[in-house]
Here is the input.
Amino acid sequence: MTAAPLPGTVTAAGSGADALLAVTDLRVEFSGVHAVAGATFAVGPGTITGLIGPNGAGKSTTLKLIAGSEVPTGGRVRYEGQDITGHPVHEVARHGLIRTFQLSSEFARLTVLENLVVAAPGQRGATLTSALLGKRYWRAQQADLIGRASALLAEFGLSQAADQYAGELSGGQKRLLEIMRALMAEPRMLLLDEPLAGVNPTLRGAVTEHLCRLRDQGLTMLMVEHELAAVERCCDSVIVMAAGRVLTEGTMAEIRANKEVVDAYLLG
Amino acid sequence: MSLAYQYYLLTLLIFFGVNTIACWSLNIQYGVGGVMNFAFIMFQSVGAYLAGVLTLGPSTGASFQQYILGATLPFPLPWILAALAGGVLAWFVGLFALRPGRRDFQAMVMLVVSIIASTLVLTQGSWFNGQNGVAAIPKPFESKLNLGEVQYGWFYAALTAVTVLAVYWLVHRLTASPWGRRLRAMRENPDALQSLGVNVRTESMKLYVLGGALASLSGAILVQFIGAWSPGSWATGETFLYFVAVIVGGVGNNFGALLGAALVLGVFEESLRYLPSFGYAGVAEAVQFMLLGVLILVFLWFRPQGLIPERRRRLSRLRPEPAELSQESSAVAP
Here is the structure.
C-alpha cells in the first residue's frame, strides 16, 4: 500500500494559498497507533470537499483535529490564514468553523426548536450576568431566533416536530437536526461527519440538495461521507484518505478513474 | 395554638425555607446544568461556620470555644459574606474538580473534597472548635427586638421567607433565560455545546460558584436559627439527602425542588417523630436512612423525572407571525 499522494493529483483548492482551510502534515498518535500520519490538503472557499476512505483511515480523527477536540502531535491547521492548531473547540467554533458529530449529539431533553435556538451565537441573556437583566432584555432577540429556527425547520420538513423533545426524533431526523443546529451557529465553514448516515433515501436527496444550495450561497464544507452517490453529486473535490494519509485528491470522476484507489478502497 | 406548638411549626417552616434554598442550589447545578455537586454539604457548612464566627465576636482564650475569623458583624453582613465565601470556595474547588466531559471524575473528586474538608475541621480544633463545633451563635436583631422566643421565631421565619422569595426570583430568572437553556444543553451534551462555541468549563464554573453561594446562604440562615454547628451537622451522607429531595421532587424544576424539600426533608424526615420507637437506640434512624435509599431507587427506576417534572418549553408559541419575521432569516451568515 502506498501512502504518498499519487502522481498527477490536484489539491482541493488548487493551492494552499487561497484556501479557507489548509492542513499541513497533520499527525496524531494514540498509544503508538498513528491515526493520522501526515495528512496535507486544502479546502477552497465556497466549495464542498468530500473526505472518503475505508474505515479507520483517519477521516473522523482529521475532522476532530481541525475542530480542536483532539490535539495533534504534529502538523498545522490554518483557517482563514490564521494558525488554529490545537485551539480549544469553542474557540475554533467561534471562528465560524462548526463541526457536526458522527453519532447523534442532540440535546435530548430540549425541544427541537430549543436545540436550534441554543446554537445561535451572540445571544442576549445567554450569560449569567445578562440573564439577570430579565426577559425584556432578551425577549425580542429570542423571537427573531425562533423565527429563524422555524424557517429552517420548515425548509427541512421538520416543522411538526418543533416542540418535541429532540430525544424523541428518529435517527434520520436527528441527523437533520444536527445539520440545522450547525447552521444556526452561523458557520463560515462546516465540518460534517457523515451527515447522511441513517437518513432515509428520500430525505438524503433533499439534504444533499440543501447542502449544494448552501454552498452556492458561499458556505464552505468539508464532509466525511460513505454515501458516494451523494459525494459525487455535491462535492467539488474529493480527498481519499487511507492509513492516516491523503492517498489522492481530485473530482469524483477522476477518483473513479483511478484504478488503484477504486480497487483498494471504493469497491473493497 | 400553644406556644410549644407554634414553636414547632415555625421551626418546621424555617427548616423548610432553608432546605428549599438548598434544593434550589442543588437543582440549578445538577438538575439544570448537570453538575453533580457531591460536596454540597461542605458548601452549606462553610456558610454556617462563617455566619457563626462572624457574629460570635473575637475568640478569646477564656471562652469554651476556639475559632478563627471571629467578629461581630451586623446583619445581613454575615449572610452576605457567607454566600461570598461559598462562591469563592466553589471557585477554588471548581479549578481542579470541574471536568464537564467527565462527570464520574467530577463527582468523585467533589465527594473526596467534602470528606477531606470535614476531616480537617474535625482535627484542626482551632479553626471551628473541632468536634464540639461552634455554639451560642447570636440571632440577628434578637437583643434589639427584645421579643419572646416564639415571637422572635416568627420574625426569623419571616426573614427566611423573604430570603426564599429573593432566591426564587434569582433562580427562576436564570433558569427561564437563554442562559438556563444553555445550561440544560450543557447537561444533555457538553461536547456538542462546546462545538457550538460555548466554553462549557467556564459556564460550569459560573454555575458551580452560584450554587456554592446559595448553599452557603442556606447554611448561614440555618445556623443563626439553631445557634450551633459542628461536624455532626454535615456528615457526607447529608449531601445524598438533598439529592433524594431534588430527584423525588423533580429534577430541573424549581417547584419540584421545593416539593422535594417539603416531602423528603420535611415530612419523611419528621415522620419518625410520630412513629412508636422500636429496637435499640438509633435503629429507627438507621431504618429511616435505609428507606431513603429505597425511595431514591424507586424514583430513579419508576419515575426518574420526579413528582413535578421539568417543564417542556414550547417555544413555537413564541414564534413571530410571518410578517414580523425579519427578512434576513437565512441561516448562513453573509
Chain B has 13 helices and no strands. The mean pLDDT of chain B is 91. The first helix of chain B runs from residue 3 to 32.
